[in-house]
C-alpha cells in the first residue's frame, strides 16, 4: 500500500518562523479574510490549521507574509483536502505557481531548506 509521502511531488518543510497567512476564497470577494496558522510548506503547497471545514476543490487566494520580505507574496491555490484529526481542522492547499507571486515562492525552494 502506498503512503502519503510516496504521493508527494516535493518534500515538506516546517513553516518558517514568523510566517503569517491570510486566506480568502477566490470567488468570495465579500468573504472576510481568514488569518491561518501555517503548519508546513513545500514547493507546491501549504499545510494549514483551519478554524472550520472548507470544501476540497475551493479556489483560494493567499497572502504569505515572510519575515525577510517587505511585502507579502500573493499566491493562488486550491484546497486539496480538509480533515479534523484529533478534532482540529487542517487543510492542504495545492498552489498554482503560474499565477501571482508563484515564481517567487517556487524560487525559495531552489536553495537550502527554506526556513
Properties at a glance:
six-stranded antiparallel β-barrel; 2 helices; mainly beta; 9% helix; 115 residues; single chain; Thrombin, subunit H; 40% strand; 7 strands
Summarize the structure.
This protein is mostly beta strands. It is built from two helices and seven strands.
Strand segment count: 7
Order of SSEs: HEEEEEEEH
Q: What is the CATH domain class?
A: Mainly Beta
Whole-number mean pLDDT: 83
**Spatial strand arrangement across the major sheet:** 2-3-4-7-6-5
- CATH superfamily membership, which one? predicted glycosyltransferase like domains
Helical residue percent band: under 10%
Strand percentage, roughly? Answer: 35-45%
Note the main sheet: 6 strands, antiparallel, barrel
Question: Which regions contain 5 or more consecutive residues with pLDDT less than 50?
Answer: 1-6
Count of separate structural domains: 1
How far apart are the termini?
32 Å
User: So what's the overall shape?
Assistant: globular
Classify the fold: give the CATH topology.
Thrombin, subunit H
Radius of gyration: 14 Å
Counted by DSSP, the helix tally is 2
Structural class, by secondary structure, is mainly beta
Protein name: PilZ domain-containing protein
InterPro entries: PilZ_domain (IPR009875)
Tell me the layout of helices and strands.
Elements lengths: L3 H4 L5 E2 L5 E6 L8 E9 L2 E5 L9 E7 L7 E11 L6 E6 L6 H6 L8
Antiparallel strand pairs: 1-3, 2-3, 2-5, 3-4, 4-7, 5-6, 6-7
How would you characterize this protein structure?
With 115 residues, the protein is mainly beta. The protein has a single domain, classed as predicted glycosyltransferase like domains (Thrombin, subunit H), CATH 2.40.10.220. It contains 2 helices and 7 strands; from the N terminus they run αβββββββα. A 6-stranded antiparallel barrel has the order 2-3-4-7-6-5. The longest helix has 6 residues, at 102-107. Residues 1-6 have low confidence and may be disordered. Residues 7-96 form the PilZ domain. It comes from Alloalcanivorax profundimaris. It holds the Pfam family PilZ. InterPro entries: PilZ_domain.
